[in-house]
Design goal:
The chain is mostly helical. The protein has helices spanning 4-18, 28-42, 45-52, 58-75, 84-100, 103-106, 109-135, 139-149. α1 (4-18) runs antiparallel to α2 and α2 crosses α4 (58-75). InterPro entries: CAPS.
Length: 152
Amino acid sequence: MVNKQQLQAVKERFSSFLSGETQIVADEAFCNAVRSYYEGFLKSERVSRMVQSGGCSANDFREVFKKNIERRVRSLPEIDGLSKETVLSSWIAKYDAIYRGDEELRRGPQRAHLSAVSELILSKEQLYEMFQQILGIRKFEHQLLYNACQVE
């Protein structure tokens, strides 16, 4: 169960993220989702009362965030090569990193490295899509060009 001190620590972590004081890379849509969660849920009197009565777990907090972002992500436009499930899992991973705060650093650099790698993969997909749109090339055309440029 989450106690008052833990709730305060979680609020501070999310506030730090929103102030840009963390190393977590995020786009505007994720920041808006976190801001909504922070303002509408974490800072609410209802959550304070639930924590005070011992009725909230860390998993409850995560589920509220997950339900919130599922609605948001479903309303985003579809991006070729980037599934909404990928966005959801990336956002949940970022949420977990914010929620854990300093605990992430204590577990060692390996986990932080994996998080950075997943960010890199997501960024590559987004860049790929952006360049396709800029150049006006469709996926199959890109594959044809790629195959034509291969030297044996």
